[in-house]
């Protein structure tokens, strides 16, 4: 190779390197910019979402025979996990729907209603009033509510038998919609 | 305790007098035959008096600290006075680098104006609310006012440069703007004069007016040119307002503040007209011949050097220390509070200044104009943001 | 790449080089200082080394690169951001208006048309708007690219410093002088004086370069690195685990989980303290100020807190708490543990804790107590066995009582306005009387009750509101800040001063350059040539300016 050719080759290499270097830096900066913009718009709390594994917990059960309920014990069943409170009106509205569908799905799906009320008394009165038979849990220290990062009440998680969250519903449910979601988490 | 406060007040008074006399001695240096930068009798007396004044004001600072139990930088009077003190301090430092006597003739009157302006605010020592109770109060406030004071020296040098360099033989945009700068200084003086006068006369006029669904009252210490919206005058034998402020002006005291501003502008205008009538030319044109001896490039250098020294100090105090304290007190280092935003604006401005100067060769007159604008931004943050856009920092 | 050969020293320079990197001879005709009227002086930026971005401008990438590399663009971005920031302070941002109002209505009501336009344009949330973020990001990009682009020529310039410089280079420096006859002794004195002033002296065949404060040239790059680190830190806030912002209410005597710790940490509020000025002896100094205030001035907000660690790993199971830390939380004094910090941000005073009731005969004007009971509002019992054979059952409990469509309900779970429906079983009776009792309310449902339940006493407690923060970006921001300060001080408080001595026949030519503070370098030279016959350097820029002025005046 002659010297001229060598110099030319060197020059071409340099140019290539320069282009590569600049492209990489610009791309990295562009990526950072896009990341910042997207993050700014999805400013919501990093709550649990569809596709996440439902984190396990154990809480005191206020009705039925059991003293406590551990979510891990329900493996193999679909779980409807409902966060509610006695003072929350929309929560109260959807309770009868849950109670009416409970016997139908009982063997395949467990409806778990976690109350975030402060005192047991108000929950007991509420449960008696509506004759609720599905497990009512009491999260008096808001531990589970914090774990699931629940915002407004009611919030309902539909968890499939593999423990994966299939649907998150914020706000009250109608009977039809509730039925539809329960169908989704039936075991195969 | 009361004795300490009296003593403290006397120290401040003494400092004010000393600065005033020093100004006259700095004026005396103009007539010295020798060139700028050399020591003469009057320059020696002038700087000595300035230092004595500074020591006296330090005495005010310490005794007031002892009396109140916290650093006297917690309300508008204390902070503004301290800013004046830092301005003198910065001037002394710059003086010993450059020995520029003419700078004293401009920097000291600005400091005097600031201290006099400060004394228009309530002077009693005030307790600290919980969020101010922190060592960062002293660290942040002292650093930020030192930084701003050094930047103010840059303004003084820039102003001298402009007065010296701008062609006064013809009327131009530049001469007009320069007169506006001088007029705004006179308006500050006007505010002090008019407030002191009516204060001495014990003037008071009380208004009642509807505010946020309630009836509020406001005390005017100046004759009401502009009264509160839908207000009624309660005090007898007082003039009725010439007009009412529009309803969109916010805050209980908006009308009173607007009235004060109006008075300051009018008094300033009066002063300006008298000065023009006496001098028979533009004020800057009248000052220009006094600056013959001063070297322009040295002024330019001083103005720039002050920014170079002041910018890091301001960044440290106004942004970094501010963020640390905000994190401690309000658990967020940055909250877009108006005062914070204006500190950021100041910082952006001087960053642009430095880039323009270093990379784009903005020297001389352009650089001097920038120094003037920078000072305007600082004063806006110091005064207007507190009085107009009240946020977390509103002491007054 | 075209290369340029210097015709004086035959050094091969890269394309774009303006002053020969070896001897300093101008390679282009119009080489002159920017922004200055004089044509005489050299532009000494990067000592004339070629700036990379200026030499290639072919592909899109190169063009984008060059755009961001420009100081003009950078300054323009700064000025736009500055103006935008100022616009955001015209009216208060949404976060500073009252929480309980609709922003749309508030801006219109308070500020009229201006407010409405302000709201419509989205200026009420200016600082979190996409375009403001883009502006900040563009400034960041500009800083990065401009720094990369300039640091290379600067490095080349500072590396290639030879004492021997071309005469043109010497003559066209701002500070320059010629002295015809200089003795070796004088030259020696001059050099050793410079050395004493901490100049680094290199000599080559009689040519001398004395240099000082070279490191200050790196200042801008160091401070830009600091800024970039700071911006990166701010960006990292968006990464979920780096930053947590939450809030918790804790009642006195209560222990609750600290949010976002996955049930690992609990906090107990032992006591909440609020103090105002005027109570203690030492507050008399503030007497005047306090009298001028309409209300009391707060002196202290404080929560005495205990942090516990939960060793029970199953969330929700009865926690097993171990004491972890005990401290008081004050404004300006957060409680810190395991990366979390708890700040005193809010409080509610006097929330009900327990209520004591007595039972008396309805028509007893003296209300003589027949039996009494106390209800713990955090955990009311269903049934109370009382003296004299009375029995009370709680039928309904409304912690925060209100009437909704004629129905009694509770608004929240907190006992702000507690009310009860009691079933009172008189002695030896299985038929209860229904009684409604609350704060300032006492309703007999049937109107035929023989006994009445009256509120006798209550206990209250305070609630503290704490902000829970975890911010792993703080150390990064701190590091950025420190590096920025180092860089800016390095660049601003030191200057790169250079003095060249060029031997010419029996005498020598002197030239000097500094990146700032010309006054300082002149003083240095003045001091160094004392007691020698070397001529003081002349400021050629100043000379030229004065010449121009004279010419103008002569016209």
UniProtKB/TrEMBL annotation, chain A:
Coiled coil: none
PROSITE patterns in alphabetical order: THIOREDOXIN_2
Keyword flag Transmembrane helix: yes
Annotated Thioredoxin domain residues: 48-187
Compartments in which it is found: Cell envelope
Membrane-crossing segments per the record: 20-38
Predominant subcellular localization, coarse grouping: other
InterPro entries: AhpC/TSA, Thioredoxin-like_sf, Thioredoxin_domain, Thioredoxin_ResA/DsbE_sf
Keywords from the UniProt entry: Cytochrome c-type biogenesis, Disulfide bond, Membrane, Redox-active center, Signal-anchor, Transmembrane, Transmembrane helix
A matching Pfam family: AhpC-TSA
Name of the featured protein: Thiol-disulfide oxidoreductase ResA
Organism in which the protein naturally occurs: Aquibacillus rhizosphaerae
Automatic annotation (TrEMBL), chain B:
Taxonomic placement: Bacteria, Bacillati, Bacillota, Bacilli, Bacillales
Protein name (Swiss-Prot/TrEMBL): C-type cytochrome biogenesis protein CcsB
Membrane topology qualifier: Multi-pass membrane protein
Keywords (A to Z) from UniProt: Cytochrome c-type biogenesis, Membrane, Transmembrane, Transmembrane helix
Cytochrome c assembly protein domain residues: 74-179, 271-393
A Pfam family recorded for this sequence: Cytochrom_C_asm
Statement: the UniProt record of this protein carries the keyword Oxidoreductase: no
Location of this chain's protein in the cell: Membrane
Keyword Protein biosynthesis in record: no
Organism encoding this protein: Aquibacillus rhizosphaerae
Transmembrane intervals: 12-30, 45-67, 79-98, 105-122, 137-163, 175-194, 261-279, 302-326, 341-358, 370-392
Broad class of the protein's primary localization: membrane
From TrEMBL, chain C:
Pfam family name, one: ResB
Claim: Transmembrane is one of the keywords in the record: yes
Subcellular location: Membrane
Residues that span the membrane, as ranges: 73-91, 130-152, 221-243, 472-494
Domain of life: Bacteria
Membrane topology per record: Multi-pass membrane protein
Domain ResB-like: 71-525
Primary site of residence: membrane
Keywords for this protein: Cytochrome c-type biogenesis, Membrane, Transmembrane, Transmembrane helix
Protein name: Cytochrome c biogenesis protein ResB
Organism this protein belongs to: Aquibacillus rhizosphaerae
